[in-house]
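Researcher: Let's run the pair from yesterday's discussion. Sequence first, then tokens, for each.
Model: Starting with the first of the pair.
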Amino acid sequence: MITNQENPVGNRQPRHRREAGGDRYIAIRNILNVIFMIGAVIGVLVYFYGSQDTGTIIILVSMVFKIVECVFRFMK
């Protein structure tokens, strides 16, 4: 039997603990993610409805933005 002392409902720990300072690169990361998503969607549309070579280049360029965002994520 679980008593109130073993499992206090009111004193649960949060599932994710964030650092007190937060992520100082969050604004840059969000901008880079938006650029990546827009570029990926445009690249897929160009790939299927236009030139496959141009669509592939657009997708690869948008992936560069995602890689830069990952670098900022690891730097925190």
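Model: Moving on to the second of the pair.
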Amino acid sequence: MKVDPKFTKKIQDWLNKEPKEKEDALTGAQLLQQINPRNAMYRRFINLSIQRPSQILPKIVYELKTHLKYRLDGLTLEEVNRLDREVVPAAAEIIAKGKPAADEDVLLLDEKGQTVEPAQVILSPEDGETNVVKQLGRRADHEQLPDDIKALWDNNGTLYKDIKSTFEELKSMEDLPSCQRYDKLQLLASMDQKYFRQMKEYDDFVIGSEEEEKKEDAEQKKEVKITVPSARSYISKYQAKLADLYKAAHVDGASVKDINAYQDLVIKVQARVNVLIVANEVTDKMKESLSVIGVVFDTPVPDESKAASDNAETAG
């Protein structure tokens, strides 16, 4: 069943009419009955719009605005009801499997020192909040995955919390019809879809696949084309971030995630610094600010003339 745009326009025209007269109450009530003929409350609105039009008019306005919202999105009332029946169980399925584990989650172990799947964890030492965390599903080779693929798992951890929060909100609104829960249902549907899509992409990624090789080749080509201006620009852009990552990676109990992030970035910054060293474009200020966060400046630059001489002697 498709949305009738002419009927939707009637609803809009009725709502846009100002000021509304007493006789408009009956017209509005009839529109509501057309939307949902089986609704007993809407049938009572017909009588009330004749007996007490001024009193029932605000309620009719509210109900028609509620229905107009989903109709403007191209949905019928039947489709909204179906959305309700599908999206809430999908969210319940996600919640039942547990939140994707994050590095900061502290696992509670059993008497044998083993975690159960999914595991009960303390989310933060400050408030002692506990939750079920999905350890099963996090890949054994997680740390070897590209950053953008690892990020999918982390993003789903954050998304899980939002899904759970919206799910609980909808549970508190169970006594309301689907049309009045439409905004929350739409939000939950989009989050459900994103969660499943990201988890599938994470699960399906193959290390060493053709796509990964193409990405690595592209990165290597970028490295080869580093110029002095681009090196300066890159260092300027990422110096502050490198400093933050250096601090995070050098504290007691630093997470593997922070250490890897620091190591990845310092390698990239070092490559740009090496270009500037060769070009004799390094300043004292640059040395002072970058040396303390792990960038090396005392690596001797190869003497090309000496290397050529050595090669000639060897050849002779």
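Researcher: Give me one sentence on the second I can quote.
Model: The first helix runs from residue 5 to 16.
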